[in-house]
Amino acid sequence: MEWPQSVNPDAVVALLVVPQRGLSRTYFFRFVSSPSRRPSGHDGGRNMALVRILYASEHHSTQEIASRIGTRLRTHGHHVDVRSLTSALGGQGLPRVDAFVMGSAVHDGAWLPTAEAAVLAGAEELRGLPVWMFSVGMSAALPRLLRLLADRAVQPRVAALVDAVHPLEHRRFSGVIRREHLDRKGAVLFRLLGCRYGDHRDWAAVDAWADDIARQLTALPPLSLAD
Hints:
Layout lengths: L13 E7 L2 E7 L12 E2 L2 E2 L2 E7 L4 H15 L3 E6 H4 L10 E9 L2 E2 L1 H9 L1 H4 L4 E7 L6 H9 L3 H10 L3 E6 L1 E2 L6 H9 L5 E2 L3 H17 L8
Parallel strand pairs: 5-6, 5-7, 7-9, 9-10
Antiparallel strand pairs: 1-2, 3-4, 7-8, 11-12
Helix pairs in contact: 1-8
């Protein structure tokens, strides 16, 4: 078939021939697919970051807080990956991302041992990146007076870890405490102190913090998504 000069045969996907009063009229159709949308570092003038959220959790409470933060950041348009802290910082160098949010359960005044070791090993690299840290303890399970004291108390090992990384912010949250989480001695002490078992996570506070992180990410200098 001889194509009209204005028609590129390589672009023609279909044609339709319509007879009209002894004549035929040919219609050429070109279907152009929309380009697939790829993640971009910008969205309507805003900076969209690729954020790695890392957690260390023994009874899933901290893991669920990390997932909640990730979900909240995604609602602001950021690209989020939530992973175990030790698997992500296991001696293979930092992944190529724009920012980190990392947290751990706190036992005996410190992050879980493997998480603490992994963060200290990567502290030098982390200091040059936007990092937020959070610790999950049990202060909300304490009676009011003890809770006020616990919230103001400095936990030296946690403080040393935060000082090693220099995050933009470190936030404390309470988690979940069940009887089966404690050994016999711990359960006796827990009862003598008048503590309460249960889920003490303040989801409104978690959401508000995640929203604040999202705003700070957007205000950072232009970011390009890591490969």
